[in-house]
Write a structure and sequence with these properties.
Chain lengths: 295, 171
């Protein structure tokens, strides 16, 4: 049986690599993200009340809304979970690929492991689409409306903004470099449906991506990335983000030498689950807001 | 023999340690456990009534942003629509319309109301820093503060900006 929403929020960690890596991004969006954990505590933070009767009533309504599968909240949670566990596999693959390049003896690994850059390109794009679909599941805007998503994206704050910030930094800048936006757009533009089909992260959420067949889904992913690229580009420029500034902040908690920087993206990938962590926080916040308004 | 006695002597200690650990690891049931049970499983009731109004139908009754306030629609679900009110890039309030057909207790609480906006009963919920009106005995319109600068007076002022009469004619 899947976990209840109150257990998921109660079980969010207050420390560990995920929380440390997100805190390392505070320089990019100062003060925007607080690691709010605990179901009742989130109710108090969102609504400003600590009246036990109100907290209980809001909590009960939020639990009921989450449990109603038709409301889409569980689909959103599944999406956040699936792209994170997909990226854990990708991290293992990227590591294997690096080892393959370093040791000629293991060079054959290159034949069965996707090129790190292509896999990472797909991973970043699919994660972005997962965000769009999850946003629409939570907020109720039809799943193929990129325009509505962009209006909402402009208003992103708190844990949602942190998730996008981490996507840009951990899945864009660090593994793909400062020109990741144009690189991803080029690669996605020239990609075949077969290449997409072979990607674990894509396979995980394929059924939830609009577009019909894989070719149509590739079009949707490419178009979505293109539509959000302007926002990402502004974000990178206005916050002064570069691989160096991000790595500099990560070095506060990860001891990593210059010659091992190639491994950092893969390391973050296998050792953190920032999508699930901040996704759970976003979902809880929206649920609680709705529950408080409806009661 | 000695070994056997030693084992016998140890047994209560081992058992009590095991019991202690199992007692520590079993959590107290959550105060939401009953709700969780009632709302899961095959015969669980839907959280939103089948004949609840579509959330998109509520959008046109929301006030526009003005005088430094911007309005951003943030949720649109069956029986519910919500918009944020931002000022200076900061969220200061949330405005919502919900169909109480899914939450009858929400409509019932307006029986306590002692004041009105237009002809609609109004209720202030201090613990939530929220003020609402009930339209047509069915649609709840609420404004909740998210920043101390947005006061109860502001909430009432914004409630008056909703097209409440239009909402009352919603079929």
């Amino acid at each position: 049986m899947s976990k209840s929403i109150f257990e998921l929020v109660d079980d969010l960690p207050t420390g560990g690599l995920t929380v440390m890596s997100l805190n390392a991004l505070d320089f990019a969006i100062p003060g925007q993200w607080q690691n709010t954990v605990g179901f009742d505590n989130t109710i108090k933070v969102v609504t400003g009340t600590d009246d036990p009767e109100y907290v209980q009533a809001i909590g009960e309504r939020a639990v009921a809304l989450y449990n109603d599968k038709g409301e889409g909240y569980q689909t959103a949670m599944w999406l956040y979970n699936t792209v994170d566990s997909g990226s854990r596999l990708l991290g293992a693959a990227a590591m294997a690929n690096k080892v393959g390049e370093k040791f000629a003896m293991l060079g054959f690994l290159g034949n069965i492991t996707p090129k790190a850059e292509t896999a990472q390109t797909i991973d970043l794009s699919v994660k972005l689409v997962a965000e769009i679909v999850a946003y629409c599941q939570i907020n109720g805007i039809p799943g193929d409306s990129v325009g509505d998503f962009l209006a909402g994206l402009g208003d992103y704050g708190g844990e949602s903004l942190m998730r996008m910030c981490a996507l840009v930094c951990f899945d864009g800048l660090i593994p793909l470099g400062p020109d990741f936006i144009s690189m991803v757009m080029d690669k996605m533009g020239g990609m075949s449906p077969g290449e997409l089909e072979g990607n674990q992260t894509f396979k995980g959420i394929k059924d939830q991506i609009p577009g019909g067949d894989t070719g149509g889904q590739l079009g949707f992913i490419t178009e979505s990335f293109g539509n959000v690229s302007g926002w990402m580009s502004d974000f990178v420029t206005s916050r002064g983000l570069s691989p160096e500034t991000v790595v500099g902040n990560i070095r506060n908690f990860v001891d990593i030498s210059d010659d091992k920087l190639d491994y950092l993206g893969a390391f973050l990938d296998v050792s953190t689950n920032y999508y699930v962590h901040t996704g759970t926080q976003t979902l809880a916040r929206r649920l609680i807001e709705r529950a408080a308004a409806e009661m | 023999m000695i070994v056997s006695n030693w084992r016998k002597a140890m047994m209560p200690i081992v058992l009590s340690v095991a019991l202690l650990f199992s007692a520590c690891s079993s959590k107290e049931p959550s105060k939401y456990a009953a709700t969780q049970k009632e709302t899961t499983g095959r015969n669980a009731p839907a959280a939103v009534a089948k004949n609840a109004e579509a959330g998109g139908d509520f959008n046109k009754f929301f006030p526009q942003g003005d005088a430094g306030y911007s309005r951003v629609f943030s949720q649109e679900k069956k029986g519910f629509a919500e918009a944020k009110l931002n000022k200076g890039g900061k969220n200061v309030a949330v405005m919502s319309i919900s169909d109480t057909i899914s939450v009858p207790a929400a409509a019932k609480k307006y029986e306590r109301s002692t004041s009105k906006i237009s002809s609609y009963p109004m209720l202030d919920e201090a613990p939530l820093k929220s003020t609402g009106v009930l339209v047509n005995n069915r649609y709840q319109v609420k404004v909740a503060s998210r920043d101390p600068s947005f006061t109860g007076t502001d909430r009432q002022a914004w409630l008056k900006k909703f097209n409440l009469d239009g909402l009352s004619k919603l079929k």
